[in-house]
# Entry
Amino acid sequence: MGLAKKFFSNAAKPSGFLGKVMIAGMNIFHAKVAHWGMSRMNIPEPLEIAELGCGGGKNIRDLLMKYPHSHVTGVDYSPLSLEKARAYNKDMIASGRCEVVEGDVSALKFEDGKFDLATAFETIYFWPGLVKCFAEVRRVLKAGGYFVIVSESDGRDKPSLWFESVIDEMKTYTADDIESALASAGFSEIHTEHHPSHSWLVITAKK
Ligand SMILES: C[S@@+](CC[C@H](N)C(=O)[O-])C[C@H]1O[C@@H](n2cnc3c(N)ncnc32)[C@H](O)[C@@H]1O
# Structure
């Protein structure tokens, strides 16, 4: 396996030394798209938030800042991501505003109707089947709860298509693909916003 493939495959499930480097990079290189995505989130103030595929945990912290009365549960299936996200949010965990738990989005270990908001930044490319995972997200949302997806790929941009060719576990999606999977999973009020000059997307859906 070439070094590029070895390194970038860690985006799907970081592990080992290269995974540590990848996670440190995620908090830095995803900051702009995440910041834009969060600025476009116009939903009623959520109290219980699930940050799915939380990686290095920066978005957990930024959600806690955006919604000062919220509690955020970060979820990831990579032990390395969990370790980094916990260290990054150590003070918030100590103050009881946040927890970071191991979990796979295709089979979440939460009861039905727990969350007001679920977020997924730069992660759905790696999920094992969109409709199945979206249905699982919908299950853990309260009635009227929101699911917000933020991706820097619109399924057509050259960089992401290159990543897709290198990372076996990665699949890019167009806004139509994502909207249709959300509808099949039972979501309504599905709305996509495209960034005016990048391939970035924010997709909001309601349970
Ligand atoms: C490219 S990183 C993005 C991390 C973070 N959301 C960000 O924007 O920087 C993708 C993350 O999603 C996690 N992930 C991928 N598939 C997952 C699944 N099925 N269940 C839980 N986590 C998953 C990976 O372990 C990794 O930490």
Observations:
- The longest helix spans residues 16-29.
- DSSP finds nine helices and seven strands in the chain.
- The two ends are 42 Å apart (CA to CA).
